[in-house]
């Protein structure tokens, strides 16, 4: 906010990467922290095609909703 106030109004998504290197309990723990703050959270591994597809879909949805909210 100190740099550009409009950044605070943009949608955001927290992306947890390299989940193939961390146990699932730690991933869920991190996700819960962000979810409690009302953040959208996506966890993915670049080695998992389904994870990549899910991330792409969430990004598309975020962009579409951002565009719609401006119109």
How does this model look, in words?
This protein has 71 residues and is mainly alpha-helical. It is built from two helices and two strands. The chain has helices at 24-36, 49-70, and strands at 13-16, 40-43. The chain has a two-stranded parallel ribbon with strand order 1-2. Strand 1, helix 1 (24-36) and strand 2 (40-43) form a beta-alpha-beta unit. The longest helix is centred in the C-terminal third of the chain and has 22 residues, at 49-70. It starts with 12 loop residues before the first strand and ends with a helix.
Number of helices: 2
Query: What distance separates the N and C termini?
Result: 24 Å
The average pLDDT is 90
Query: Radius of gyration in whole Å, from Cα?
Result: 14 Å
Query: Structural class, from helix and strand content?
Result: mainly alpha
Detail the poorly predicted runs: none
Question: Which sequence of strands runs across the widest sheet?
Answer: 1-2
**Percentage of residues in strands:** 5-15%
Helix content: 40-55%
Tell me about the largest β-sheet: 2 strands, parallel
Number of strands: 2
Following the backbone from N to C, one meets helices and strands in this order, namely EHEH
Shape: globular
């Amino acid at each position: 906010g100190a740099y550009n106030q409009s950044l605070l109004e943009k949608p955001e998504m927290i992306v947890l990467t390299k989940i193939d290197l961390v146990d699932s309990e730690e991933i869920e723990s991190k996700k819960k922290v962000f979810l409690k703050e009302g953040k959208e959270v996506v966890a993915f591994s670049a080695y998992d095609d389904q994870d990549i597809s899910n991330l792409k879909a969430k990004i598309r949805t975020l962009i579409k909703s951002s565009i719609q909210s401006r119109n």
